[in-house]
Structure formats: structure tokens, C-alpha cells
Design brief:
The chain is an alpha/beta fold. The chain has eleven helices and ten strands.
Length: 274
């Protein structure tokens, strides 16, 4: 009988941000596959969890994925964790997850912390629909090209950025997103967490007095809907309704409410034909 692969979310900073279910699974599995065992030991030791560990960091991921699959195929249970957050979300783990699915191994998510959702929850921007882009290209030309494409999207956009590229990226956002609102969260959930709000240009100025270090999440407001509904459009619709038999006052009231404009202004302009 084949084993089970658990995809376990771990804290992105504060060690208390872990679910009871995640702790139980980590204690019960046969093996823990960690991105970096040295880093994960801080969490495991904190909760007195002692299990055999496999490191799949960097170039080891493909090789270690095969070794882990052999264990899973022999019936062992494995918990996959990363240094922080959810495996596979801008973190290693996809290779093993994909191979396990292809091999008919049961894959079970143990949900928990992820910086994307944490940042969205405090952004104040629309969360009905959003884009998670992760890390942008390091080449300036590629980064600018991608930002220009993203700037046309009405959905909220979430990025990750390394400290040594943060100021460059914010400058590029300022160039492509103009005066749109941006939120930058430094070291989210950690001791030195800071939140910066404003346009990219304003935040750049704020960061001049802040130490640039740690991990950053950038949340950007989506492109605002163009206000295509003008007074002229409203007047045209008023005339259309009047031709259909509605009295001027009724037509003006209906259209003014739909367009969110002044009934008096619309009524007066409908009389003058402007």
C-alpha cells in the first residue's frame, strides 16, 4: 500500500502561527521533507518534534524528489514543508507534488500561513479577484515589460521582492502604475514587521529612513474602471426613455441613479438639450 504525502504549511515568521493539525501531522509522519533542514529544525525543536529529515533545497530537489517517492511507494508517510509558508507557493515542492500525483500517491493539504493571503487581508484593496505574481524578473527590461502588462489588469496584484531589489522594483512600479495605491509589508508576522502605504513614490521616500532588510510583500491596487459613463451618455439615455413613453422626471430619476450623478443637473441639462 502506498503512503501519503502531506503538504504542510508552516509559519512565515511567528512560530505560533501553526495549526494544531499541522503539529499533529508532523509528529505522526514517518519522514519530513524540508527545504532546508537547518532552518526547519528551529520550528521542530520548538515543538519537540523529532523525525528523520530529508533536505530538498536547490539543486537537490529533483534527486530528493525521487528518493522521497521511493519512500512513499514503500508505504511511508511524508510531510513536505518549506522554510516558511506553503510548499509550492513561490517555494520549492512542486516537483515532488507533481511526481506524487502522477504516481497515484494520495496528496493531502494541511493549510495554514501564506504571505500572499496575509498581505491581501490587510491591504484594504479588493480581494474578489487578485493576481499573485511572486517574484518579478531580475532583468530591468523584463520587469518593466511585465509591470506594464500588470498595470492594465483591474485585479489586485501581489508580488514578493528581495531586499536588494526592493527600491528598484518600487521605482519601476512608480513609473508604470502612476499614482495608484500600493502597500508594502516588511517582515510580515515577524518582530520587525512594518507596513508602508501610499503610492510607490511616497513609499520610496518613507523607506529612506527604514532599514532595507528581510522579506517584502508588495500589494498593488488594480486598474480602476474607466468612467465611461458621462453626462452626455446619461442625456442620451434619458432621451431614449422619453421616446419610449417615460415622463422626463421619471427618466431623469432612473438614469441619474444608475450613473450616480445629480438629478437636478441632469434634469436641467435635459431641458436645455446640452
Amino acid at each position: 500500500m502506498k503512503g501519503i504525502l502531506y503538504i504542510v504549511s508552516t509559519p512565515i515568521g511567528n512560530l505560533e502561527d501553526i495549526t494544531l493539525r499541522a503539529l499533529r501531522v508532523l509528529k505522526e509522519v514517518d519522514v519530513i521533507a524540508a527545504e532546508d533542514t537547518r532552518h526547519s529544525l528551529k520550528l521542530l525543536n520548538h515543538y519537540s518534534i523529532s523525525k528523520p529529515l530529508i533536505s530538498y533545497w536547490g539543486e537537490k530537489e529533483k534527486v530528493k524528489a525521487e528518493e522521497t517517492l521511493l519512500m512513499l511507494n514503500s508505504g511511508k508517510t511524508v510531510a513536505l514543508i518549506t522554510d516558511a509558508g506553503t510548499p509550492g507557493i513561490s517555494d520549492p515542492g512542486n516537483i515532488l507534488i507533481r511526481k506524487a500525483i502522477e504516481g497515484g500517491i494520495r496528496v493531502i493539504p494541511i493549510p495554514g500561513p501564506t504571505a500572499v493571503i496575509a498581505a491581501l487581508s490587510i491591504s484594504g484593496f479588493s480581494t474578489d479577484a487578485f493576481i499573485f505574481r511572486g517574484f518579478l524578473p531580475t532583468k530591468v527590461s523584463q520587469r518593466l515589460r511585465e509591470l506594464k502588462g500588470l498595470s492594465l489588469d483591474p485585479r489586485t496584484i501581489v508580488l514578493y521582492e528581495a531586499p536588494h531589489r526592493l527600491l528598484e522594483t518600487l521605482a519601476d512600479i512608480g513609473e508604470t502604475f502612476d499614482d495608484r495605491r500600493v502597500v508594502v509589508i516588511k517582515e510580515i508576522t515577524k518582530f520587525y514587521e512594518e507596513i508602508f502605504r501610499g503610492t510607490a513614490t511616497v513609499i520610496l521616500e518613507l523607506l529612506e529612513s527604514s532599514k532595507i532588510a528581510g522579506e517584502y510583500v508588495i500589494v498593488m491596487e488594480g486598474r480602476p474602471e474607466e468612467k465611461l459613463n458621462t453626462t452626455e451618455d446619461a442625456l442620451t439615455e434619458v432621451k431614449t426613455l422619453m421616446k419610449r413613453g417615460l415622463r422626463r422626471k421619471e427618466a431623469v430619476k432612473k438614469i441619474a441613479e444608475e450613473y450616480g450623478i445629480s438629478k437636478k443637473e441632469l434634469y436641467d441639462k435635459s431641458l436645455s438639450g446640452v
